[in-house]
Every structure is written in C-alpha cells, then in structure tokens.
Amino acid sequence: MNDAETAGTARDSLQLGRLGDLVGFRLRRIQTHFGRDFGTAMVGQGLRSGMMSTLALISANPGISQSEAAKAVLLDKSAAVLIVNELERRGFARRVPAEGDRRRHALFTTPEGEAFLTMLLDHLSVIEDRVLSRLTGEELRVLNRLLDRMYEICLALE
User: In the chain, N or C: fewer CB atoms in 10 Å?
Assistant: First the structure.
C-alpha cells in the first residue's frame, strides 16, 4: 500500500467522536473541500473572501444596497465596504445614488462584472458537480430543501 492509499484508509476509519454530532462541522468540512479546490483554480484572480457572493447577489438583485448585500452574505459592514470598493475598482460593479435617498447607494454589475461572475460560477460548478453528480436528483432536492430550511431557521432565531 502506498502513502496515498494509507492516508485514505486512515482518514476513512478516523472516528469523529462528538464532532460527528455537529452539523456545522459537517457543513464546514464540505465547504472547506469546495473552497480549497476553488481557491486553487482561481489563483491569480485576486479574489477576496465574499467577493464572488457579493457580486452574484448584486447581479441577481440589481439596485441592492450595500447593507442588504452585506447582510445576505453575512459580512460586517466594514468588510462589505472593502469588497464593494474592490468590485468597483476592478470595474465589476458600480454604485449609483438611490432614488429618494442620496445617503444610500444602489449597486449594479457592469458587463465586465457579469463576465467575471460567469467565469467564477462556471469554475465553481465544475468543482461542485464532481461531488453533486454522485447524488440522485431526489437526494439533491432534499439536501437543498433542508439547507434552505436550516437557513430560514437561523434567520428566524436572529
């Protein structure tokens, strides 16, 4: 048995103990796996944490405010400011004074931002599909339904 096979066998038989009772641990483990592979694929793109999610939310919700975007991606307001500044600096998003409230800015993607987002999401889809393609359609529907339900509960408990 080579080192890789030994490591795989040891990892498969490793007991989680009380960690196995924690849904957050299980979710984090999967997120770490996806994130590591995505980070490797995106080396050199200058991505900061939360940038893709923020850009995707702006794209899906033209005119969203910075505070709404921050809340949706679970960023504090100062981190959101840095991300939106970076998106704007790179020409991926723009701020427009909101109608009726000049203190608020509406956020919009640019064509360059849409192209960058498409590239990012295409890479992420390939990474996720390697795992998700092994689930049945019903398993995937149940997983998504449960994750959405858990998120709804989290929001309700805030």
Answer: C
